[in-house]
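Supplementary Methods, section 5.1.

A reviewer requested that the exact input to the structure prediction be made available. We therefore reproduce it here, unchanged from the version used in the analyses.
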Amino acid sequence: MNALSVRARTTAAEETRALASVIGATATAGDLILLVGEMGTGKTAFAQGFGAGLGVTEQITSPTFTIVHEYVGRLALHHLDVYRLEHLQEVADLGTAEMLDEPAVMLVEWGDVILPALPADYLEVRLAFGTADDDRLVALTASGSRWSARMRMIGELTAPWREQPDVTPC
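The structure derived from this sequence is encoded token-by-token as follows.
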């Protein structure tokens, strides 16, 4: 597995959205992004910024109870929240394979929980609490060739928020 990562730090939800927006602008059809982190770390704020980077103009909200929200931008955005799923079979029942075949991007909150049911090519966005109330530590890790090929560019685009000066192999 070819994995590269970029670490960043944001100090407000607006910064998390801005960071996500520059990443969303690099997205291509078929991309899979997994949002990982404790409750309240900013997964939905990241999704909002990512959607803005795709040109989504409507308000992005967490699909906690509906599981899937779909938005229209330069590419369709399938925003999933799988926190409430109890079995991996439920992932297939949602039609995730079909969603990934569309000219769309799939963003999955709590994606690490269903990793065995997903393709091995994805960008993991791991959000964690920082030292101050609004600080967030963001680790972007590419798995597979789709995102690995873009990590140097993502490293450059996220420079205002980066903790480390270079993209580092994991």
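The first helix runs from residue 13 to 24. These observations are discussed further in the main text.
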